[in-house]
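Schema walkthrough. Field components (list of strings):
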Amino acid sequence: MAAEVAIIELLGEPRGCPVRYTMAEATTVAKGTVMQITDPRTASAHSNIDQPIAGILAMEKVGGDGSTVGTVYTNGIFDITAAAAGAVAIGKVCAASATANMFTMSDANDMLQNSMIGYCMEAADNDERVAVRILK
Amino acid sequence: MASEAVIIELLGNKGDPIRYTIADTAFAKGTIMKITDPRTIAATTAADEPVAGILAHEKVSGDGSTTASVYTNGIFDLKDVNAGGCTCGAMVAIGGANLIDDADANDLIQNSTVGYALEIAAGAEVIAVRVLK
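Field assembly_structure (string):
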């Protein structure tokens, strides 16, 4: 994978308000991956638009390590990359894009289906990496 | 300025303050702040502006400081805009300088929501609002 998210600040108590999810045991997922929610209470790597977002994977998941759980950060400020056509105006809400770990401008549907990631603390051009406030 | 927010309760880690860059000018404590580029705050002045939170402390003009924190988690007394009125439990958005109004769908996308009303507000009434940004 590429363009994983980087922590700027973890907020809340405990730091980043981590939430535990089930994860596939055999799959490797990098720390900082934007995670989507699947059934039941399971997290997997985000890969497309309109996916419900759980948060940011807090630690690397190594395929075949025997673990079936992972934790996602849900509260903080993170460096995230805009998609190739993912420019977002300052302060506006950004949502899951068609490219893994990248965001694009949100629409009303994203709010209903929980595909929003957070709001941009800087104006984001296409492919630009900016600070995003996440609170899931 | 007038109608600054007043703290009722700070929730989370003492209001979960977030630090932003700010111009070296004067801002009153309790001002509802908007986000400008890059990761900078300024006082809200109108509807449809992206809201950062509630300024946690007074910023004195010319004091040399270029950073300030906003509260993002708590319950605050906020004033309804004159033409407004808010429904108890419904989302409220920025309606002017330090004023709130009923939110619409666009406010959700453009991050203009301030929180949700904990009381019914008649026009220009000060009510408790749950803020979580």
